[in-house]
Batch of 2 targets.
Target 1
Amino acid sequence: MGQLRRAYLGPISEVAWRLPGWPTRLLAAFSLAERGSMLDMLAAADATPRREMRRKYFLHALDEGRHAGIFASRVRALSPPGNISRAQAATEDAGLLQGHGIVAGETLFARLGEMDFLAFVFVAEADAVEQFHVYLDRRLPDPDTTAALRDILKDESFHVSYSKLECDKYRREGQPIDHAIRLARWRRVKEGWMRFTRDFGERMSGVWLLVLYFLVIWPFRLVARLERGGWQRAPARPTSALAAARLEG
Amino acid sequence: MPAYILGISALYHDAAAVLLRDGVVVGAAQEERFSRVKHDAAMPRRAAAWCLEQAGITAADLDYLVFYEKPLRKFERILATSVATFPRSWGSFPRQMRAWLGDKLWLRTNLCATFGVRSDRLLFCEHHLSHAASAFYASPHEKAAVLAVDGVGEWATTSLWRGDGSALEPVSEVRFPHSLGLLYSTITAHLGFAVNEGEYKVMGMAAYGKPAFRQELDRLLKLDPAGGFELDLDYFSFHYHPTRSGSPALEALLGPPRFPGAPFAPAVAPGDASAQQIVESQRWADIAASAQAQVEDAMLHLVRYAKGAVGTDALCLAGGVALNSVANRRVAAEGPFAHVWVQPAAGDAGGAMGAAMWAWHAVLGNPRQPPLARMDLGRVNGPARSSEMLTDLGAKFTEPADPGASAAAELADGKVIGWVEGGDEWGPRALGHRSILADPRSTEVKDHVNARVKYRELFRPFAPAVTAAAAADWFDIPAAAAEPARWMLSTAGVHEARQATIPAVVHVDGSARVQVVDPVASPAFHQLLVEFNKLSGVPVVLNTSFNLKGEPMVSSTVDAMASFVRSGLDVLYIDGLRVERPK
């Protein structure tokens, strides 16, 4: 384990797991991440040209789906009875998946290609194993969740081993797998930074837009009205359908 | 040289792509079936790529790419509404502007970059026109009144059109914020379900209640004598609040909202719930029943106006509200039209089809094409690909000589099966191509499939599929609903004498959302029904979509296998191959 990573992950975890409401938020985030991984692995199983990898990706996907369920059930268990936390709603509402980092339009496998994808899987799973070890060492956050983490850790360790073996195969073939692994590590750091800057940018732009709203919008309120109800005549349209179709795009 | 038009809907929910070759659908697919993100709103790259692949062309061969709405007009509505609701819109304004300024406003550039088409090939069709076109041009009716009812497009929330041959003329519209769709969504949210997802659940819940809140709900919606309607906006906040659709006044009127996931135990099916839970559940069911009755009455009000204004024998329906199968039944049974046709993908996905069809007919001036006769318009795996996949996944499978007969025998034996055959269904209903099937004669099967197979709420009903020849013997389908019933878009009464025979598919109110299966639209599924009838004397099977809770319907062989393994299904049939459950 990287000393630096252990140095910051431990104290951060101690604080994060003890903040009110945070255990469920973190577990919900894990659940969604695992669900996202399941989709990535299923897409890889579908698309890989290496037929011997198909079953491995598929079984990996099933593990991730199971983990998502375990984390979701821990969120449910830790949520106040008779109420539902936002975190719990998130684990039960697939619609929220889009807000949790899954890049739609192109699968991770399609974006990276097989070797880089495997390098990414190896790095991500190894990081997860490290992270879970930190939680287990510190018995965070509660005995039942710790038991669940221990269960998941077995699978994650297996994922590290199989992806490492596959990376080793590439190495023996003389493929630039070490470069791919370094790239995967760098990509994780870069994506973390991008997420932070995006969130920060969104907050800042939100502030500026709010200022704009209160400074600029209000005078127009004096003349603006909501539409009335009931049927209204349809607005006039250009006589040429082609001309109409080119407008307001 | 054939003309190719690609229709695209995206960026709100249910993104989809539809490709026409000389006006005929080559492929129609929703992005969620590829991305596995339910209601995926992202640009439908993979759905579009699949459509192009079906036709053996590239984006360079497209004559037009048509987007299903006018983004600038929609932006105008959002901006104008923010201004008109100042200062209550302070929370939603920054969010909306960020989304629009960051992405949606530059749609022209985005579409060109994503799909690789030139800017001069891009067209934009109004949202409601896309809906109307999806219903009218796909229908068998030369002349029809066309009604689109949904949440909102650019400005229109309800619109009426006159369809005649290849012309589709606007008649009138109801404008935002007065919206039947958003009224129903507000009640959906009040009942603890996700908007744009839980509306079906409200419909299912409604059957357990009585319209005891009708008087209260009538304060929200006024039907005017001129045939339109108006919302009392004091009860709503969707037009200014970023996340909430109902106002505090709504809570004061209907009582506290239901927490998402709270157990539902109405008086007729209390289970082991406490007295307080039963009372609360009954209140939710009564609200659902009241909202459902209200939307049905409103739809009848609108179609009567449509008949008066357009005067045809046929009515075509589209827009999300047209997926309310209970309302569709009343429109067919009590409405003034002799024929009703509903676009099977009546939600935003259908907009992709409508936009493309509108360009073909209205922009290029081409005559009508034959109506849509099949709905398995999406991705096909095929026996060869499925066989290779199953081998690679290590699945144990056989190739029965007659898959329909084999599956029917297993159903009669009490097994719950996954059934994947041909292309993905177009629209949200499983029509025997990506279905979970079971014997409807068993009383326990409904709870079993809900709890152990699909992991969803126990109160949700299941639909029956019946052979066309036997439909009238088992179900009371209004004559005008004959077409919607082919695509599971209308409910029907189950004949009283038959209800005890097929308890698993009879809802608590004696109705069922039936699919009438004919041998042309779904030959393999029809054959299965015929075989099941031979064994059981019942030409009906329980048919529900092949997906797990929170996931879209399965599409590929890998998806089907993953859902099979993670569910309590007994056996899987995929493209004629029988897959055994792994130990």
Target 2
Amino acid sequence: MNAYVGTVLRINLTENTVKCEPLDVETAKKYIGGRGLGSYLLSQEIDPEIDALSPENKVFITTGPLTGTTVPTGGRYMVITKSPLTGTIASSNSGGFWGPELKNAGYDIVVLEGKAEKPVYISIKDDQVEIKDAAHLWGMKVNETTDTLLEEFGDPKARVLCIGPAGENLSPMAAIMNERYRAAGRSGVGAVVGSKNVKAIVVRGSGKVKIADEEKMKAFVKDAMKKIRENGVTGQGLPTYGTAVLVNIINESGVLPTRNFQTGVFADAEAISGETLSAEYLVKKDPCYRCPIACGRYTKADEMEGGGPEYETIWCYGSDCGINDMKAIIKANHLCNEYGLDTITAGATIACAMELFEKGYIKPEEVDGPELTWGNAEAIIEWTKRMGTSEGFGAKLAQGSYRLAESYGVPEYSMTVKKQELPAYDPRGIQGHGVQYATSNRGGCHVRGYLISPEILGLPEKLDRFSLEGKPLWAKIFQDLTASIDASGMCLFTSFALGAGDYADLLSAAWGVEVTAEDVLTAGDRIYNLERIFNLKAGLTKADDTLPKRLLEEPLPEGPSKGWVHKLDELLPKYYEVRGWDADGVPTAEKRKELGLE
Amino acid sequence: MGDHLNGYGTSEQFVLNEAALKQNITVFVKLFATFRDKRFMTRHMEFPVRSTVREVLQAIHIPEEEVAICMVNGHSKEIGHELADGDTVSLFPPVGGG
């Protein structure tokens, strides 16, 4: 079988049945696996126009061919479904150990379809798969769910994936959590699982993933490990400070979104920096499966301790809400993990609410809790809880910033693309990253093509962040390579140190066939176009490839990126051209043929 | 808040008038991540006119090859970039990832 374990586990919740199907290996290789194969299967099996929270939607939890192998960071799994937040295809990625455990149990993919009559969870112990009653788990937060299930399962080495109360409440910012602190965070995938009345999937496997060429793999793994260790970012920066080290560098560049993107400079950045997190709150590192980078943090603030916070979380609860209190940010992060909320959408929605409050759209009398004023630490903690439980005004916030701002008639205050909250980089001062935001297939996202790497960090080469020259092609190549990495089962962070040729080598050894760097990029292009076609069928158009009005029209008011707006109008037509799309952003017949997507 | 607190610069006019009169320039040096170990976070430092970032690195004993990102007034610059009075120099070892 060579790197795949060969079985798709299909769980029909309406009929209460479990079925094993053989994996179509040829199709799997065409899309690599993970994000690619999941997107293909979703496109084949559902109508893109359906309601994301209806029983007709399906959830594909997929591993890649390198998941569960000896490859460094080979522990990822992805969740592919239609998103209730964006209406686009969703593919959320998570690390930890759950993905390898699923493969060790003998499954490449788990499919959830239909809707259970009552809350259930899925128990997988090799070939013993059961749909079990979850009435006693419904309403529980993530840690309690995990503890309860580990005890019931009777094996502390089992791995638990679950949703929190936010997923049960169908909040479009609900995440899927695994091993307590890891999240398939974005696009509301947790709400889709909740809509099926599924609380959790516990898995334990005794098998092992077999690959084609062990000797070759040993050599390629050694080479990849060396490159990862010797690279400054993966060998030094991320291991020492985690992702939070970015707070200062992005602030120094004047692109740290502050107070809902009103400016790009936060005067108190030092208080919420990676340096401060490491010095005052770090308990230990918390690495994923076979990861030499170990960017994961485990922190403690007063009585709350656990995984995180990441840079993104520190930003959205920090500068974006005008907060300089690291303890409050750590607590808000912890609550997101407990209630199963996507930290980016949760924090950015509070930031949007604070601006709506500041501008007088949200009236004080509507707010049945702490005042939504910039810098109010009590507000970020309390409103996170109430988003998690959909309580009072929290229920309104739990719909995300777009639906919130739209309800006041001012959707332009929502800093979203395709209704998904933008992450922690203001594209007005990073032009290539902006075109990537506008064209990301899952809406506002930084991990669909991380142009911060060349435009800010200077990797693999330094680009002028204000220049438009060549940026559409850079965006395309980064998006394609990222799609392939996500499909492979490896972590995107390896791409600071590895190139397309390295991933090709690892896949060659795993599959036992020659794979070139070009094959890897072509597969990525295929995946990207496949996702695009899904979105077009779901009703999205060129008009959705845009940025919030503020970023296109209001120049940054201060700091090193002062005076800049994002020049999307100039970049987008060129991006469509390098993609092989027509002027309306539709993949041409020729392009589809070239990629085998007819 | 803003320009002044973050050390991004002085008005152009001030730079021209003052620098013409001085032999030395004053530069605001900001260090990040491991560069802070046994050094400092931020410091105002004086250098002869026409000094570059290289002279700053020499003065604070940071080997050039350890610098991953060098910004002057928030813009990425080479080590040989000539500094002006009132400039802010931000220095980072390899960091990053989002």
